[in-house]
Amino acid sequence: MLTVASRINPPLSLAPTEIPHPILPCKSHEPQSPFLSLLQNCENLNQLKQIHAHIIKNPPPNTRILLNKLIQTSCSLTHIDFARKVFDQIPEPTVFLYNTMIRAYASNNSRKEGILLYLELLHKGPNPDDFTFPFLLKACESLSLGKQIHGQILKTSVSSSDVYSQTSLVTFYLGIGELELARKVFNKMPERNVVSWTAMTTGYVQAKRFDEALGLFHEMQVGEVEPNGVTLVNVLCACAHLGAVEMGKWVHGYIDRNMNRIDFNAALGTALLDMYVKCGYIKKALRVFEDMDDKRSAFMWNAMIGGLAIHGLGEKALELFSLMLASDLKPDDITFIGLLCACTHSGLVDKGKEYFYAMEIDYGIVPSIKHYGCLVDLLGRSGHLNEAYKTVKKMPMKPNGAVWGALLNACHAHSNVELAEIVMEHLIELEPLNDGNYVLMSNIYAASCRWDDVAKVRRFMKDRGIEKTPGCSSIEVNNVVHEFMVGDALHPQSKEIYSVLEDVAARLREEGYIPRTSFVLQNIDEEERESALCHHSEKLAIAFGLISTSPGSTIRVVKNLRACGDCHEATKLISKIYDREIIVRDRNRFHHFKDGTCSCRDFW
Ligand code: ZN
Ligand code: ZN
User: Deepest of 241, 293, 357, 587, by most Cβ within 10 A of its Cβ?
Assistant: First the structure.
């Protein structure tokens, strides 16, 4: 039965077709078995079976070596079931063979079989060695089993200091989200090469624990471990999320100094660009983009287009899109999200609609729910509320919270209480616990002085235990991040900050500024509401920026929520009166305030 295959299948190159048994056992005087070279050139299962048949029929003296090689080749050709059949016929397989099989199972999504074979190894096989654990941990998905393997590694004296087993343990714990356990193993490692450091920083970034990722990078520098490209991508990602631009700039300098060693590829370039975008340095981001020149991937073009969009540089984003097309790169669905977002943030309604319809007709990209969300946002912000609502009702898929949320924002911006109430019914169903929606709804009522309804929303939230996320703004001065909550007096320079705010209020009044008190939620009297507005977190951060940075320098503030309308108006005037450029990153985008205007042109 085993030899039939040789007649059906094209024979291996060693033997001509006319010979019935083309593969013959090697003669004793030959220096190397022909099977070995046959195995090296083997391409499919039938050829593997042919060779196996011949070995079994006429076992050559080096049968065991040949069977080992046969199993290896079968595994590398991903014929794992066949490899296992051969494996099971071998009396007392070596640990090397067990490792080969476990690795094959782990690499080919047969995790369970890999684990079962390991248990068999423990039960009746030889002792596992340093090469067993990395493969095994790759197959392992359960914490309890992982802990058992961890114990086994500690017992196997050689492995307890083996850097590969230890790194695999770190990667395993990170993979199942056990960051603390990963860190424990990592801390105890006698030798930490760059791979384990990178695994650990990746774990922190994936778990959104950006502070710890940067802390680890600092330790790495103290330990004089040279980071690789992947480590730097992680660090830049953490910087982007934290707005830690000084660290980000340091990484940029480090890349420049180590160009001979670090591969400055599209992924690293994109991470650097993204860091500058998210920290508010759009010009620097553009320079990185220009410097990447021929190394630009579609991913990088998308990041730049999206970056220009959230900085309100819509026209520039559209210009870049034309250049992208000219460079023969195909736009994808993400490119169009960036383009629609660019049109939204710059009020380019007709252009945005044009792109939305062109994406399917000209580029064959079917709009997803995200694209519909962008279209609703585009129409809504520019005041085309009916058209936006019609779009939501006509969408080919069920609108989600993001789509309705965009419409609610539009209702807020254009004071449409009736539509807001309809929208809110859907949002309560889809996102019952999203505090932002309720706060927006109560702001919509407050803007129309419907205080009873404001109270109703408040009560609704209270009854369901939904708490409002407090506004929080931060500003980095001399490498220290200062955080402010609304009305907070905890900062050591609080007194000075509040006196600056009084000065600001007086100078704003001189300029004819009237506080937009409808942005205060409580139903309190006018004077109280005015002072509550003055103490919004972004105003505190800006006031601190005014007293703690040199005149004329740019003030950069990061806010966790959407910018409030009153603060937005006030910041415009502050930028003019104090002759400062003020850049505020809120939850949705960047606002560049200069000479009394904002880059968002009030579309936000
Ligand atoms: Zn405010
Ligand atoms: Zn703005």
Answer: 241
